[in-house]
Amino acid sequence: MPSIEKVSAEKHVGDATVLTYHKGHVFSGGIDGKIKIWDNDLNLIRSVDAHEAYLYALTVNSSGKLYSSSCDGSVKFMQPPYDKVEELLLCDDAIEAMCCEGDTLYIGDEKGLVTNWQDDKMLLKYNLVEEVKSLAAEKGWIYTVRDWDVVVSELLPGKSGKYVTRAVLDGKSPLCLLGPVLTDRHKYLAYPDRTGKGLTLVKNLLAERFSIAWQLPDCHEMIVNALCGDEKFLYSGGYDNKVKGWTDLDEEKPKALGEIDLGSCVNCLCCGNDNTVYIACSDGIIRRAKFL
């Protein structure tokens, strides 16, 4: 049966909005502009005044550098041991989505502009037109979504900032890559369907034309607001205050692992070690759950 293993003794003032995990550290951000760093058991290591406003996104690169974005238009970063905040950029546009692939940072804004960065220097700009609410990147492909379509784009080599659209799929934010890595790519891509209450899993392969592996219509009572996954599991949460777990992803229909009612809107999920999932909710509390 799924259960809550750990609950943070301290919390954000207002909603906890974003989460990420890296090598035994949990990072959370909230509408209070703070970033909190926790250990695996949700013991607070440090709380940092990072932004003056609501945090939109957190991501960490392979070297452990933590990037954060806020509705104040800034992207900032911290290096281990995460005690000093530095500014990467400040702009007029809201940056709602970021991700790291290795040490490369990808940033997506409300005007549909995606930029990639290395060594904190911008390399190229890609104008994808539509607002980027959720973003992933893998081996020259970027995955973006707003409220209607999931778009898979292949970035063309060179310095032109050109790309080719490889797929347009019916779906909504958020999205996540999951499953085992095959030929340098995750096997699956998951996202809510256009109703926002169901889930879709597609095969993350050009040869398969991103065909649907399975769909779970109306598996949540309200809009799905958070997704995360690893090699074997997919977790979903949302406005119905519930987190649900799924496994046997290769089957025609996945196996449901049960659900946990948090009593508070689920804003973000991230996978930890040993089949655990961390949960950020509108009550400002961070929780660790296990479904097996």
UniProtKB/TrEMBL annotation:
Organism placement in taxonomy: Eukaryota, Metazoa, Ecdysozoa, Arthropoda, Hexapoda
Designated name of the protein: Uncharacterized protein LOC119634619
WD repeat locations: 9-39
Keyword ATP-binding carried by entry: no
Annotated InterPro entries: JINGUBANG-like, WD40/YVTN_repeat-like_dom_sf, WD40_repeat_dom_sf, WD40_rpt
Name of the gene this protein is made from: LOC119634619
Keywords: WD repeat
